[in-house]
DNA sequence: TCAAATCATGGAATCGATTCCAATTGGAAT
DNA sequence: ATTCCAATTGGAATCGATTCCATGATTTGA
């Protein structure tokens, strides 16, 4: 229990009456240690309050037990927090700790962040973006095990995990159909990003799967904020034959759609059903009536990314061929969150 | 530029035709290096693509250039992100990198997180909470320079930075008074937390400072969510002499207050002015009319915390007496964010 | 001009772990 | 009884930097 001077592995060895090699073997769970030796080493560790110095371990073993987490933007939404929570919890369970760097969209900073991580001999690297998109991470990232989170490279040469947007769009639309709706509007985003394209694709395949003809009139494109949602909804309501339900690109635009519907004196969900996307608690749970929406699997992506890295790490050495397999491109499901708007 | 084998300081020394000591001195900006020597070392570093191995530096110098960041909850709100962004950016500028651990309110995990940080010889530690409160961080935190963020210990024995809630309440109330309101309601939170007590205190001193008598009838306590805000607002509106303006404990309760006001057929801000607290963009910017509110200085607290640690770090050794000064207890101002609700 | 102080330098010692190697021990096999 | 092999073990070498120390070169001051 003496805290005054730093206890080293030498001290433990002396106290246990064994060599430092033996202590190290116990510490790392290596084979060929007698039960006796192990017991006395453990006792000595306990008594002395010994804690290994991480830097020394890293220096010699070339493994730091650190996972680097690089992200373009950290502060925009609770989404970022969910990713980091998933990643951090999983890392901790695996005995690893997270290094965090936020690059604020600065490619130079990104490069330098990756290099810093490598200097510190991180075991693996997560490169996360705050919305689903194609990305071009620094080349250096390929020197070590790494994984893209909420983004991907076009040639699929790096492991990647992203939400299954198409399935999300499909599920949302199907849910509306199952509630008897046949005429379903879609207020899409305007920019060409994966979510924009893929959710629409999901919407269309859901219609098709249920034998409902696609009507281009029912799809409007607006910036996905309350104003856009309001405006898009108004456009749909002004149709000669307006929809009885609307799928909104995200919760923020659904917020605007709510306003438009209210302003027309219509009720949700009796007159118009609404479904959103993102499950931004702050909005979806607080709207009245509560917004039914699709949840993005941020927490799960964080978990997956770290688990993937961990599995890569202990594959190293064991199965050299593994390095040659093509990197997984994983889609994670977006669960439906039912509230009262459908 | 050879990348094949790891370049060490020995290689650089050989290449530059100097000793390793000289290389190290150049690297660390130590004095007593001739211009010639420095130039050739720099050239050798450039040519060889040398990058120091962090673990070796840490082992010998006992400084890791890492700052530990421990937090109870990471994912609730954009607030967490703001703190981390401020901390991370400032750390990066100071040549440090952030270790992140999220303890999910688990005291055992907290202990173990602090120990892990110490094992890794972090230069300093930030202990952050996701709302302003009294905290009891693990004892071990006192072994190294550390700072509490958005929390404090009762005896002020650890440095701490928190929002100036009382001033925030004062500013908010004053802003309403300056807009001609004399009868101002306050929908407070119900639980006894610093924000609850201090914002009320600020409200009262603002009234007093402007010669408006305090009327207990105008202060109601509700849970600070939309439902509570709605309910509290209704209570105020039902008063024989209802207020012309209302200060809400936070933006979420303001959201509910909006609903109540609308439901009564009253207009914001013409009939009732509303001011919130927190500046949760997702709510405040998206409500109609935009909610005027007080912003919590999360980003700034993150910056302050790291800057404090950095200054502590280079005070070490220079001025031994500094360690004995009583740790600062800093209050950071909450700026007013003007939108259209007043 | 000479002593003293200052500057510049190379290289050994050091940080604290892991890993490797040679040596010892104790059975099992012949 | 002797040989062989596997299990255990202690301790030296190693990882790659910083730091310290002894030494030689240069300046400064009188």
Structural domain tally of chain A:
3
CATH superfamily of the largest domain in chain A: Response regulator
Query: What characterizes the major β-sheet of chain A?
Result: 6 strands, parallel
**Main sheet of chain A: which strands, in order across?**
2-1-3-4-5-11
Structure class of chain A: alpha/beta
Give the CATH level 1 class of the largest domain in chain A. Answer: Alpha Beta
Shape of chain A: elongated
As a percent range, the share of strand residues of chain A is: 15-25%
CATH architecture of the largest domain in chain A: 3-Layer(aba) Sandwich
Gyration radius of chain A (Cα, Å) is 26 Å
CATH topology of the largest domain in chain A: Rossmann fold
Q: Which parts of chain A are unreliable, with pLDDT below 50 for 5 consecutive residues or more?
A: none
| Proportion of residues in helical segments of chain A | 40-55%
Verbal overview:
The first copy, chain A, has a 6-stranded parallel sheet with strand order 2-1-3-4-5-11, sandwiched between helices. A 6-stranded mixed sheet of chain A has the order 7-6-8-9-10-12, with helices on both faces. The first copy, chain A, has 342 residues and is of the alpha/beta class. Chain A is 42% helix and 18% strand. Chain A is elongated and about 90 Å long. Chain A has 12 helices and 12 strands. In chain A, β9, α11 and β10 form a beta-alpha-beta unit. Chain A has 3 domains: 9-52, Orthogonal Bundle (434 Repressor (Amino-terminal Domain)), CATH 1.10.260.40; 66-163 and 299-333, Rossmann fold (3-Layer(aba) Sandwich), CATH 3.40.50.2300; 165-295, Rossmann fold, CATH 3.40.50. The N and C termini of chain A lie far apart (63 Å). The longest helix of chain A is centred in the last third of the chain and has 18 residues, at 298-315. The interface between A and B is large, with 48 and 48 residues. Chain A binds a DNA duplex (30 and 30 nucleotides) through α1, α2 and α4.
């Amino acid at each position: 229990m003496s805290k005054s001077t730093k206890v080293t592995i030498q001290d433990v060895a002396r106290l246990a009456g064994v060599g430092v090699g033996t202590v190290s073997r116990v510490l790392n769970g290596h084979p060929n240690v007698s039960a006796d030796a192990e017991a006395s080493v453990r006792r000595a560790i306990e008594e002395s309050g010994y804690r290994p110095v991480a830097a020394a371990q890293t220096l010699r073993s070339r493994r730091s037990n650190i996972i680097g987490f690089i992200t373009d933007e950290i502060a925009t939404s609770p989404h970022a927090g969910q990713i980091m929570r998933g990643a951090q919890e999983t890392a901790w369970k695996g005995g690893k700790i997270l290094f965090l760097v936020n690059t604020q969209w600065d490619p130079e900073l990104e490069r330098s962040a990756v290099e810093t991580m490598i200097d510190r001999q991180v075991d693996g690297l997560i490169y996360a973006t705050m919305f689903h998109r194609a990305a071009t991470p620094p080349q250096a990232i390929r020197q070590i095990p790494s994984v893209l989170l909420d983004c991907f490279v076009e040639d699929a040469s790096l492991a990647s995990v992203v939400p299954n947007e198409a399935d999300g769009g499909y599920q949302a639309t199907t849910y509306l159909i199952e509630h008897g709706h046949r005429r379903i509007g879609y207020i899409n985003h305007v920019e060409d990003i994966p979510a924009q394209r893929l959710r629409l694709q999901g919407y269309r395949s859901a219609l098709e799967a249920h034998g409902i003809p696609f009507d281009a009139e029912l799809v409007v494109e607006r910036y996905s904020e309350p104003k856009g949602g309001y405006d898009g909804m108004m456009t749909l309501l002004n149709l000669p034959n307006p929809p009885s339900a609307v799928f909104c690109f995200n919760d923020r635009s659904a917020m605007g759609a709510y306003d438009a519907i209210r302003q027309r004196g219509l009720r949700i969900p009796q007159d118009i059903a609404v479904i959103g996307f993102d499950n931004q608690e702050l909005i979806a749970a607080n709207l009245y009536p509560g917004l039914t929406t699709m949840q993005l699997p941020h927490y799960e992506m964080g978990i997956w990314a770290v688990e993937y890295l961990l599995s890569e790490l202990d594959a190293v050495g064991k199965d050299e061929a593994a390095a040659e397999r093509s990197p997984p491109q994983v889609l994670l499901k977006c669960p439906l969150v039912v509230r009262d708007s459908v």
